[in-house]
């Protein structure tokens, strides 16, 4: 690794090994990534804040250490700007927090630092993570590196673009209804949304809420596994993090793969269905593929109810006090849940339980479930919301996420991988889903898809 390009284009795992062996200094790695950011980000808008001075100081500390600090020693990482970083601006994508500098790190950031990771900066997100296009009044739109006119996806688009273009070898994201998976699909990178609680969130006001999780985006499965290993582990203040793991043994024999293009209820574009069918044909080379789905009847309405209630609870006061400073997308999201009754909420929880048990039943006859990682392909940045698919109007602006938010609803871990594509085809990814607590099984299966089928990242033409 003697050039800027070679440093920036290796995986995080390879970079960690090179630094640990003394083949590369942390400072040289940081300088290479800062140079890549300087050359590309004016066009792409992946970062809200770049902390060059802080990254250089951290690199000096890594280089001065007598032994590697941890598994991510000297490895640069980008943090989504919804997550607190001590001493570094955290805007949540909102002008209301333009000058907000947290005093403490979120737990995941603290664990990344303890593992030796070096924070390059904060990546762009829609205001409070609500939006189909990765833009806000501070920065954006974050442009898709495969076609600058198109969206990178919400809401971890900044992280996806940073990884896809080699501005960071690894990036953090958050995922409520598909916010690491959709950008991963749009930008040809891999992502992990782990089982809720695998990465604790001890500050979460609703301790048993499992709709949102931290996650990661990277260019390889190994990198995702490395990042998760550095951050996983229980915390007494997060009740979800104290649950035991599932049966995470490797799959014995030829994998049994259940495949669904839409979970029986999600609106999915015809072109996406065709690409997914081609991916399933490839999967049949490594496993026994059967079209099958959990019973997800009522899932779209259920997720909409639960999501609306959570958002109204979290941001209702902000809407009352500072409505004129919020974007229309945020206002719609808050108002969507403001009139829900307790009965509606509990009915949604009841239906959610039925769907969860249907997922569990499917996994008694399948090792892995696969589905598209997005229902549509990237669209122009000027179009703020997906309102129709193949000419059929959607009932709400979030319905295009049904193919991903159904999995959020039940809390199963998801690995997203890009699939092979033709020269003129846009990126497209699949969700690879396992039972709760079975991330190791996902990673092992994902590596087989990378190695045997070429389900892996291809660099954009920048």
The first-to-last residue Cα distance is 20 Å
Q: Can you give the mean pLDDT?
A: 96
User: Count the helices. How many?
Assistant: 14
Percent helix = 25-40%
The biggest sheet, with number of strands, parallel, antiparallel or mixed sense and barrel status, is:
8 strands, mixed
| Structural class label | alpha+beta
Query: Oligomerization state of this entry?
Result: single chain
What is the global morphology?
globular
Task: Output the helix-strand order.
Answer: HHHEHEHEEEHEHEEHEHEHHHEEEHEEH
Number of strands: 15
- DSSP strand content: 5-15%
Strand order of the largest sheet: 6-8-7-14-15-11-9-10
Keywords, separated by commas or semicolons:
462 residues; alpha+beta; eight-stranded mixed beta sheet; three-stranded mixed beta sheet; 14 helices; globular
How does this structure look, described?
This protein has 14 helices and 15 strands. Helices cover 38% and strands 14% of the residues. It has 462 residues and is of the alpha+beta class. Helix 6 (157-164) packs parallel to helix 7, helix 10 (299-322) packs across helix 11 (328-338) and helix 10 (299-322) crosses helix 13 (402-410). The longest helix is centred in the C-terminal third of the chain and has 24 residues, at 299-322. An 8-stranded mixed beta sheet has the order 6-8-7-14-15-11-9-10, with helices on both faces.
């Amino acid at each position: 690794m003697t050039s800027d390009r070679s440093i920036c284009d290796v995986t995080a795992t390879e970079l960690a090994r090179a630094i640990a062996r003394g083949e590369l200094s942390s400072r040289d790695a940081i300088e290479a990534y800062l140079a890549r950011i300087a050359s590309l980000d004016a066009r792409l808008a992946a970062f809200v804040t770049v902390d060059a001075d802080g990254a250089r100081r951290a690199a000096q500390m890594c280089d001065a250490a007598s032994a590697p600090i941890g598994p991510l020693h000297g490895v640069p990482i980008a943090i989504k700007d919804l997550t607190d970083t001590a001493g570094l601006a955290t805007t949540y994508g909102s002008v209301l927090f333009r000058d907000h500098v947290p005093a403490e790190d979120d737990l995941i950031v603290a664990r990344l630092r303890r593992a030796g990771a070096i924070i390059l900066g904060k990546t762009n997100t829609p205001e409070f993570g609500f939006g189909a296009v990765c833009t806000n009044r501070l920065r954006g739109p974050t442009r898709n590196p495969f076609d600058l006119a198109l969206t990178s996806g919400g809401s971890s688009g900044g992280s996806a673009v940073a990884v896809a273009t080699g501005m960071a070898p690894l990036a953090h994201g958050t995922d409520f209804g598909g916010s690491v998976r959709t950008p991963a699909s749009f930008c040809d990178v891999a992502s992990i949304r782990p089982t809720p609680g695998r990465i604790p969130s001890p500050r979460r006001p609703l301790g048993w809420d499992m709709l949102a999780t931290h996650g990661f985006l990277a260019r390889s499965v190994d990198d995702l596994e490395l990042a998760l290993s550095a951050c996983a582990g229980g915390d007494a203040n997060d009740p979800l993090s104290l649950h035991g793991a599932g049966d995470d043994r490797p799959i014995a024999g030829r994998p049994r793969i259940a495949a669904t293009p839409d979970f029986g209820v999600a609106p999915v574009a015809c072109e996406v269905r065709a690409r997914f069918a081609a991916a399933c044909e490839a999967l049949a080379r490594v496993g026994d593929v059967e079209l099958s789905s959990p019973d997800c009847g009522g899932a779209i309405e259920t997720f909409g109810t639960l999501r609306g209630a959570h958002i109204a609870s979290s941001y209702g006061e902000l809407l009352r006090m500072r409505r004129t400073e919020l974007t229309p997308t945020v206002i719609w999201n808050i108002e969507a849940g403001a009139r829900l009754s307790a009965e509606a909420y509990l009915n949604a929880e009841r239906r959610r339980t039925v769907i969860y048990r249907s997922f569990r039943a499917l996994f008694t006859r399948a090792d892995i479930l696969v589905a598209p990682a997005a229902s549509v392909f990237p669209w122009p940045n000027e179009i703020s919301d997906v309102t129709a698919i193949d000419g059929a109007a959607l009932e709400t602006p979030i319905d295009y996420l049904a193919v991903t938010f159904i999995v959020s609803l039940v809390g199963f871990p998801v690995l997203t991988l890009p699939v092979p594509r033709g020269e003129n085809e846009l990126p497209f990814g699949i969700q690879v889903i396992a039972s709760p607590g079975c991330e190791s099984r996902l990673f092992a299966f994902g590596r087989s898809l990378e190695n045997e089928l070429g389900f892996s990242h291809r660099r954009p033409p920048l």
